[in-house]
Amino acid sequence: MNLFMSETVKNKKVEVKSNDLFPVFLKLQSFHTLLVGAGNVGLEKLTALVNNSPHARIKVVATDISPEFQLLADQYPQVVIVKRAFAEDDLEGMTFAVLATDNHQLHQYIYELAKEKGILLNVADTPDLCDVYLGSIVKKGNLKIGISTNGKSPTLAKRLKEVLTEGLPEEIEEILDNLNAIRESLKGDFSYKVRKLNELTAGLVEKKVGNNGEESSQIK
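RE: above sequence
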């Protein structure tokens, strides 16, 4: 990481601004999503949506559909493509909209309409117009970890995703299943269950002290 830090930054105490985004996981299958654009960026957005929520109901509006986009959409019957220019009526009944064209004026226009209707927006490469960021996702079975850089560097989020994916054990799904079974079998109130599960999972994390004397943790 030092490769990207100037000497000035390394030798100076930098005030770090807080990432004040509130992380949530949406059940996209419970409402309707609009995707505007079906080119390379649209393909990236659709891939993220269906990989994480394969039953999401998505309406796609675009004047041009790339072959790769069409191929992916054909695998999901709940993805409906309308080949034409965006119309204001396309926002009717939508809860979430993703804009993925190269037309910034169109994005601004849809943004203003969406604000009036209370629709959440994700706009490609325009953090200022976003209500929601589509962050990098680490997924192993039922474990899902979202990574956010507050819109500053999707590339870094992608690299962190690779590190976490590599570091998580393949047995993580078996661990989750076992812990769920134990949780279901525990008697007592919520506090008791939390305490017992904390005791049971303490051994999953291995503490190590580095050469600099600092303590770090890793999953066994």
